[in-house]
Design a protein that fits this description.
This protein is 37% helix and 24% strand. It is of the alpha+beta class and 179 residues long. The protein has one domain (25-176): Glutaredoxin (3-Layer(aba) Sandwich), CATH 3.40.30. It has a seven-stranded mixed beta sheet. Strands 6-7 form a two-stranded antiparallel sheet. Strand 8 (143-147) and strand 9 form a beta hairpin. It is globular, with a radius of gyration of 18 Å. 34% of the residues are buried.
């Protein structure tokens, strides 16, 4: 009887953990709403930015990244900074999200002169909603979503790479199709 109870318990635990896994929002689906505090190179904003309040003005690049001050993340945001003019011409704004606190975001944005908002998802709830959280290392995954002006997911790159500019160029191509 004891092995049976252990087997049933194990099956239940595995089923429960699988049912709690989050699937990534897909193209065409409404973007899940959220509200997060944020920082820019100029200030820290404690009043949360609500995604739905940004919908309709521009297409939104939602860029999840692991951590401020790391090499790959610095390359990612500096690539977006250096080509921010072309992103704006494609009618896009950037919302970059990590689990870092707003104070770190503020200093990092100021240090790198970043022209966009860095959102603080310290609990990683938004990253989990967007299937952009890595449970093993407890950091955000490097993922990119484009949200169109109607609030729908228009593009997803679940494994955005900063190795070269290929993924960034695909992102800009996706944005150009929304013009």
């Amino acid at each position: 009887m004891r092995p049976f109870v252990l087997s049933v318990t194990a099956v239940f635990a595995i089923s429960l953990s699988l049912s709690q896994e989050t699937t990534s929002p897909i193209v065409g689906q409404k973007a899940p709403d959220f509200a997060l505090p944020y920082a820019t190179k100029d200030s820290i904003f404690r009043t949360p930015l609500r995604l739905t309040e940004t919908i309709g003005k521009q297409n939104i690049i939602l860029a999840f990244y692991p951590a401020d001050w790391s090499g790959g993340c610095t390359k990612e945001v500096c690539t977006m900074r250096d080509d921010f003019g072309s992103l704006q011409k494609l009618n896009a704004d950037v919302l970059a999200i990590s689990g870092d606190y707003v104070w770190s975001h503020y200093e990092w944005a100021k240090h790198h002169n970043l022209p966009f908002r860095l959102l603080s998802d310290h609990s990683h709830e938004v990253a989990k909603t967007y299937a952009s959280y890595n449970d093993k290392n407890q950091y955000n995954k490097r993922t990119v979503f484009v949200i169109d002006k109607q609030g729908n997911i228009a593009y997803v790159d679940p494994e955005y790479s900063v190795r070269d500019n290929e993924d960034f160029n695909r992102l800009k191509e996706a944005l150009s199709k929304l013009q």
